[in-house]
Structures are given as structure tokens and as C-alpha cells.
Amino acid sequence: MAIQLLNGLVYGALLFTVASGLALMFGLRRIVNFAHGSLYMLGAYIGYSASAVLGFWGGLIAAAACLALVGLLLDSVVFRPLQRRDPLTTLLVTFGLALIAEDLVLTVWGKDTLSFAAPSVLAGDWSLFGTSFPVYRVAMIGFGALAALGLLLWLRLSRVGLFVRAASQDPVIAAVQGINTDRVSALVVAISASLAGVSGVVAAPLLSLAPNMAGDILVDSFIVVVVGGLGSMGGAFVTAIVLGQINVLGVVFMPELTSLLPFLLMIAVLVWKPAGLAGERV
Amino acid sequence: MSATRFFGWAGLAAIGPLVAWLTPSLLTQSLVAQATFLAIFALGVGLLLRQNGTVSFGHAAFFGLPGYMLGALLPLKLMPVELLICAAVLLTAGAAFVIGLVIVRVHGIAFGMLTLAVGQAVYEAATRMRGLTGGNDGLSLRLPPHLFGLSIKTFQQPGGMLIVSWLVMVAVLALVSVLGASRLGVLTEAIRDNEERVRFLGYRTLLPRAAMFAISAAVTAIGGVLFSLYNAFISPDTVHWTASGSALIMAILGGSGAFWGPVEGAFVYFFVKDLLSGYTTHWLSIIGMALIVTTVAFPAGLAGLLPWLRKLIESRQGEDPVASS
């Protein structure tokens, strides 16, 4: 049982690191990035290729760097020029980008499932609660916790974090106060993209690589962001953890219904609180 | 209805039978029939986009649900098959209405995210509930020998299905055009443009939007019924979100501003895809770029092409600077 809870935490941590970027982007620009799952997928594939030469850690750093660049590009080529348009335009444009990214992955890496070994430092099992538990999964939980803590400290304590929170509350007033919202946005999108890419690499040893991985993570991330309260980091954190637990416990207790549980959770929360768990808070 | 309008609709309705009569190629007939299923699918998605101003990434669920209902309920012989088909469409619309009551309340752009979750929930259910849906193997429909007074062969041969589905498509198109001018149509458009102001005028805004969501699901479900009758088979691929995504692209390419835009988009999408499949494997990139270019530069889509050309020609004719300003 305790092992199942830990497994739930593994998936919850992964969901949070992907969904937090979506929540940040929504908070700042009021946009939905449909290509966020593709960033996660690209990170995983770039990590896969880079790790063949540079090893796991090299692959991780390569994916983080490449995806940060992709994020900067995404912000300057797509989000900024479209910021005065209907947010639907951005959603559809990023949908188009997601299709192109899938084609790119199919062309470069093929449609077969690829797998990727955990680094030797994190290989092996630990005995926990009387059974063995892979060290790598513990490391994944650690990665999620580190990302959450890092984002929390950054948003609460740093000057740029203050700007991000201010711009999320009211971009116009924030700009009037002298905050360069474009620069804040470029930074946030780059960090979000990089985080999604790193999550892809971190998830790769556990879940295999396939061109449909973008869509799978996107569905759950969307649920996390909407149920948590659009743009809220705290809400996204709580929802990701709960969703992770639901996924694992569902498999154990109600295998036929597992896939419907996240959906039922979403409906239940939205009936109770249409604005999501955190409401309008950032 | 004026005479020109009547002849316009009658002419449109005649095209399908004419194509079936003129093209002896079974392949072409089959392609046109399949394109009409998708056109009706896209009409539902386009209706939602035009009336509620929201995108759906989950309409494939409503396209596939009637097929699954038929597959599961036909062997039980509860009621005449014709009635069962109508019930399947109505039940799909009912399910959409209930879900709609919950999800239309969220912020416009987030609605799209929720439809994706709804669609994937149906997909997951279709793959996991093997007893009911046959899992990944899919489900065969045990159809009776006669349906609506016609031999079942009519529905499963390309020529026959082409005529049936074309006529149904024209009928749905006519319904959609009537709906746009109806009270509900005008009200939902007003809510789309400014919900707060409509509420200020004393209207409830939740029910009309949920109703429009249900109607758009019903339209898509009609396409789904034709699709599953033609194939006598339904599988989870039909309800995967990528199918919803394609229908959304068809509606956008065609232009959701005009009620017939999605039909135009669906035919162009389907036949261009078929044409290009022999030359390139990069269909995803091509359609992705087409989607981006259309949304950014030509939001009116293919349906906006004619008015745009007319305007261009008119501005060329009136060369004096005052008229062109």
C-alpha cells in the first residue's frame, strides 16, 4: 500500500513539473499552450539522442538547454506577436505546432517505441516498507519536490518572481509600474519549456518514448491546470499529487474505471468550484 | 422560403445522387461517402465554434458514442433498430448536455482543455471496458437486413451510402442554417460576444450554451451513425482525440463564420490528404502549417475566399481613390 502511494507520488511529481509551466504561461499571458506536451516529448527525444554521446546527465542538460531555446523562440515568434489577438488564435497555432512537432519526431526518430536506461548512480532498488522500490523512482519524486520548491522560492522571494506574480494579476497595471512584461514572459516561457523538456528526460527511463507521449501527458496536464485553478501554482501542485494517487490507486482497486477517475475528479471539482480549487489566486 | 433558395437547396441535394450516377468508380464513391461523414462531424464542431465561440478537442467522443451504443444494444433487441438509432443520437446529445452544464461554465479558452479530457475519458473507456466495447479489437454492429425500409446493402455499398449520407448532410446543413437564425442561435451568439451584457438583459446564459453544446454533439452524432452503419464496425481509433483534432482543423480551414464552411473544409481536407498520400508522408506538417496560416492570416477560412475575391475585383473596378478608401 505504502509502495502504491509512492508510485502515485512519482506520477504526481511528473505531472506537476509539466503542468506548472502551462499554469505559469496561462497566468502571465492568458494563453493555453497546446504544444506543451510536444515540448515534453522533444525534451525526451533530444535527451535520448544526446545521452547516447554524453551520458544521461549530459542528455538532461542538453534537453534543458535546447528546450529553453525553443521556449524563447516560441515566445518571440508566436506568443508575443499574437498577444493582442483572441487567445483562441494562440491555442490553434500551438495545436498546429504540436502536429509539426509530431511529424518532426516521426521523421527523425521513427514511430517505434524507444527506451532509455536510468543513470547507473540511480540504478538498483532500495528496500522500503518491506519491499524493494527502485531508487530511480525516489529520485523522480525528489526532482518533482525540487522543482516545486525552486518555483515556490523563485516566485515568492525573487524580484523577477514578484514581477511574474504582479503581471499574472494584472498585466496592464504591472506594465504601468515599469515591469517589462515581455521580458518577464520570455523568461517564464523559456523556464516552462525547459522544465517540460527536463521532465521528458526524467520520465523517459520509466515510461518509454513514443510519438503519442505528447498527447497523453497533455490531457492530464490540462486537467491539473483547470482543476487546480487556471494559472495557480499551488492549485496545480495539489491537483497533480491527487491525480497521481488516483491513477495508481485506481489501477489497484478499480482497474476498469481508472481511466475515468481523473475525468470524474475534474467534473466533481468543477461542479463544486467552477474556477478550480485555487479560484483566482495566483 | 424564396424560390431561388429552394432551388439552391434542391440543387445541392441533387449533387450527391448525380456523383453516384456519374462516377462508376467504387473507390471515388466510397471516398465521397466518407468525406460526407467527416463533413457532418465537422459541422457539429463548427457550429459550436460559431455559436459558442469555443473549440472542441473532444467531439470524436460524440462521433463514436452512437456507434458503440448500437454495437452494445443491437444484440439485446430492445426496440426497433430505427428507434434505437434515433435514441443513440438523442442519448449522445443528452450526455453532452449534462457534461456541457458543467464545462461551459469555465473560462472560454479553458473549455477546449476540458473537452480534450472528456474526449480522452471516452477513448480510455472504449479501450478498457472490454466486455462492453471489445477493447482495442473494436465492436461489430449486428445490423438487421432492412433499415428504414431499405435493404441494409444500400447503407454498406459506396453508391447507396453516398446518396443517403449526402442527403442527410444537406438536411443537417439546412437545419444548422435555420438554427443560426433562430432565437437560440441569436442568443448564443450574443453570449459569445458579451456574456455579461446578455445576463444584464435578463437572460440566463448557462442553459443556452449547454444546449448549443448538446446540439453540436447531436449533429456530430448523426455523422457517427452514418459512419458506423457504413462500416458496421466501431473501434477506439474513431474516438481518439486526434480524430477530434482533425474535425476541428476541417472546421477552421473551411471557416466557421459561414454555416457551410466546415463542409467545404472537410471535403478539401479529405481529398487533399488522399491526393498527397501518394507523394509525401509529411501530412502532419502540411496540415499543421495550413492550420497556422489560416488562423493567423485568413480567419474566415475557405468560406471567406469568395467574398474576399469579390471585394478584390470590386475594388479593382472602382479605381478612383475615394471608393477604395
Question: Could you explain how this protein is built, in words?
Answer:
The complex is a heterodimer of chains A (282) and B (325). Chain A has helices at residues 2-29, 36-79, 87-109, 135-157, 159-169, 171-176, 181-203, 213-228, 233-253, 261-272, and strands at residues 125-128, 131-134. Chain A has 10 helices and 2 strands, in the order H-H-H-E-E-H-H-H-H-H-H-H. Chain A has 282 residues and is mainly α. Chain A is 73% helix and 3% strand. Chain A starts with a helix and ends in a 10-residue tail after the last helix. In chain A, helix 1 (2-29) runs parallel beside helix 4 (135-157). In chain A, strands 1-2 form a two-stranded antiparallel sheet. The radius of gyration of chain A is 18 Å and the shape is globular. Chain A has a domain at 21-214. With 325 residues, chain B is an all-alpha fold. Chain B is built from 16 helices and 4 strands. Chain B has helices spanning 3-22, 26-52, 60-73, 81-103, 108-128, 130-133, 152-156, 158-181, 183-193, 195-200, 206-231, 241-254, 261-276, 283-297, 305-317, 321-324; strands spanning 139-140, 146-147, 150-151, 233-234. Chain B has a two-stranded antiparallel ribbon. A two-stranded antiparallel ribbon of chain B has the order 2-3. In chain B, helix 3 packs across helix 11, helix 4 packs antiparallel against helix 11 (206-231) and helix 12 (241-254) packs across helix 13. Chains A and B meet through helix 3, helix 8 and helix 10 of A and helix 4, helix 5, helix 12 and helix 14 of B.
Which geometry of chain A do the CA atoms define? globular
Radius of gyration from the alpha-carbon trace of chain A, in angstroms: 18 Å
The oligomerization state is heterodimer
Q: What is Rg of chain B?
A: 20 Å
Mean pLDDT of chain A: 87
SSE arrangement of chain B, N to C: HHHHHHEEEHHHHHEHHHHH
Uncertain spans of chain B, ≥5 residues at pLDDT below 50? 321-325
Averaged pLDDT of chain B: 87
Distance between the termini of chain A: 34 Å
Give the biggest beta sheet of chain A: 2 strands, antiparallel
Structural class of chain A: mainly alpha
Q: Which class best fits the helix and strand makeup of chain B? A: mainly alpha
Range of helix content of chain A: over 70%
H/E element string of chain A? HHHEEHHHHHHH
